[in-house]
Specification:
It is a single chain. The chain is mainly alpha-helical and 189 residues long. Helix content is 81%, strand content 0%. Helix 1 runs antiparallel to helix 2, helix 1 packs antiparallel against helix 6 and helix 5 packs antiparallel against helix 6. The two termini are 37 Å apart. Keywords: Membrane, Transmembrane, Transmembrane helix.
């Protein structure tokens, strides 16, 4: 969830599910088509995995940042954008939402770290399958298997660095938002 682009938050839960699920379904469908050559399998992957993944991610997004539903789409987008860029939100009214969003991202990142072993196991299985496909499968199967290994390498190397950069910016935005909250509270007393 940390690396999801900010525009995904613009809509409600259904739009978020479609915004994440449709590309994921197409991605998985393309893998099925490339590996098996079956259009039926590819369409089935899109129709099954797309909604499954989209609904799962949208529900998770709602759990880690429940305050998102209290904001209108423009405010929600402004909060996410400012936090991900590490900028001051500039609006004391939205500062608590920035803090809440930043807390949600930290929670999501910690949950992702707990699942690292699952990714490592599947990466190992993907390497084993790629070796088997290389030695006994078709050239197409071998290429797709090694491409799958490549995606696991991205998951294990690029994503963590990207998350670290985003979280660094998020912390800057959170500090600015907390200052705005303190200033608003001091002015209100």
């Amino acid at each position: 969830m940390v690396v999801l682009p900010g525009w995904v938050w613009r809509g409600g839960p259904v739009r978020r599910a479609v915004s994440v699920g449709l590309p994921a379904g197409v991605f998985f469908g393309a893998f099925v088509l490339a590996e098996s050559g079956s259009w039926v399998g590819a369409v089935a992957a899109v129709l099954v995995l797309g909604p499954f993944y989209g609904i799962r991610v949208a529900r998770r997004m709602g759990r880690v940042w429940p305050g998102a539903r209290d904001l209108d789409p423009a405010d929600r987008s402004a909060v996410v954008g400012a936090a991900r860029r590490g900028e001051d939100i500039g609006d004391a009214r939205l500062a608590p939402a920035v803090v809440d969003y930043c807390d949600g991202l930290r929670t999501a990142r910690e949950q992702d770290r707990l699942l690292l072993w699952v990714i490592l196991v599947f990466a190992g299985l993907a390497v084993a399958l790629a070796v088997i496909d290389t030695s006994s499968g078709s050239t197409r199967e071998a290429w797709v298997s090694w491409l799958f290994v490549l995606f696991f390498l991205v998951e294990l190397t690029w994503w963590p660095r990207r998350q670290t950069r985003i979280m660094s910016r998020v912390e800057q935005a959170e500090q600015s938002a907390r200052r705005l909250v303190r200033q608003r509270n001091a002015a209100g007393e």
